[in-house]
Amino acid sequence: MTTLSPDDAASLAQLAGAAARDLSIGAALPPGWSVFETFPNAPPPLGPDTTGAQGFIASGALPSDPGTQVTVIALAYPLQSYAAWSSATVIGRPAGLLPLPAGVSDVNANAIAPAVAGYAALRDELWQAFARTAPRDVIVTGTQLGAAMAAIGAIDLRPGQIGPDGTTKGPAAKSRCVMLSAPAPGDQALAQLLAAQTQAAWTLSTAHLGVSIDTFPGAPTDGAVVAGTPMAIPARTLAAPGLISDADTWVQRDSDAYVAALGGDPVDLGTVAAQMATQAAFDVLRAATLADLIGLPYLLSGYPGLRIAAPMVPYALSAPIANGPTIWGVSARAPGTAALLFRDAVGWQEFDTLTCDYNPVATPFSGPEWTTAKIHSGAATLFGTLRAAIAAEAGAALKADAATVLDFAGHGLGGAVAALAAIDTIQTLNPSQTPRVWMFGAPVFGTYDFLTLAAKLVGPTTISLSRLTDFLPRIPFAFGNDGLGQPVSLLGRPRITDPDGHGLSGYASLLSPRRAPEVM
Fold this sequence. Notes:
Residues 369-478 form the Fungal lipase-type domain. By secondary structure, the protein is of the alpha/beta class. It has 2 domains: 6-235, Alpha/Beta hydrolase fold, catalytic domain (Rossmann fold, 3-Layer(aba) Sandwich); 288-511, Alpha/Beta hydrolase fold, catalytic domain (Rossmann fold, 3-Layer(aba) Sandwich), CATH 3.40.50. It contains 14 helices and 19 strands. The strands form 4 sheets. Strands 1, 2, 3, 6, 7, 8, 9 and 10 form an 8-stranded mixed sheet that branches. The protein has a 7-stranded mixed sheet with strand order 11-12-13-16-17-18-19, with helices on both faces. The chain has a two-stranded antiparallel ribbon with strand order 4-5. Helix 11 (377-400) crosses helix 12. The two termini are 40 Å apart.
């Protein structure tokens, strides 16, 4: 296989996606594929040497050659596992490019830190499982961080290589590597090594009219380069209404989106479904409207210069809120109210350097009462870069109408920024009415001392929405799990495939009176 057909790529995308799911009860694979072994055998507690990376070895036939069995090694470092590991490894969390794990290659090549850490944690068990198979043609695949691990694995599993036990031999023929939604996995030396040590390697991404739709890989930074042969796939729309639906990066980066774009039929590997339900009393219509409006900074950041034609009544777009050329939020106004709306991290670099920076740091607020309060470092950093722009927009809205009610709303890390912005507005602009805060899938971002003070200022007007399957609100911060405001749990499955449960379109779909959830 020196070329990669769309049908074969769709099959491998399904396997790569399965590796990123819950493997504690085994891997659920599409028809025709059999799991040989999953690893690690028993997920250990997260720590410096136990990252949460995982994978499996499976056998089956690709559509292009149904009579030939191949061995697929699917590697994954689920983003929720990486975020949880980052929270548990605040001190000494590796970053940037690191040398390949010991024993992989004598060549001086470097890969992104989480891929090195993840593969190093799996390498012994992977080779032990490999020794127990009768591998035929080997293909190593993965999605997102697992794709970068797959590049390392394809280099490691080569003819003449000896495994970490000192006896297991590598495959008879060179492996192949298929990477989906992959950040640049390493430096130029790694890219050259991957080309030399594999039969072929591909990096798949989705695009529409030349514009990247899956924006998670982002532009390479810090000396990293794209590896493998690029393969751009025409993206398909999600067939769902709303500003965010076709620009939801959490949905577009998922393997099912790739399978659909490749012309395949995504296999439902199991999702609990129920009607949307919550015991909390809150303004559902306003929450639904704000969830839709948070789609604006996603669209504007992913597609600069875009003219918004979607209906926003009664709101009118006021201005973007940006850090240099990077748009993180927008302000929008309606009679009697103004909304400041913030997106979550989009690309890998944003997710790694901001969302996963769980180091507790001092708040940006002055006064002795804040001395012992600590907040999430990534949220503090992002708020710091946007603080002046936020103050300008909030001040302009209050100047136009002193009775204006301000809504600060954000998704993911943007929810933490929204809360910090509301507190800052109270302390610096003294609005006549307490701002309302709406957080959709926000992380835990403050210590007890911070939450105690914040609750006095915005606690009664803060709504923190989460979903049962959303990983981000459930990751501890500084050994604490308490959040800010009134918690609202949304139970249900939206029509949009969203295995991570974090996509904004899922929140918007469950909340919107126009879109009923799919019910089993």
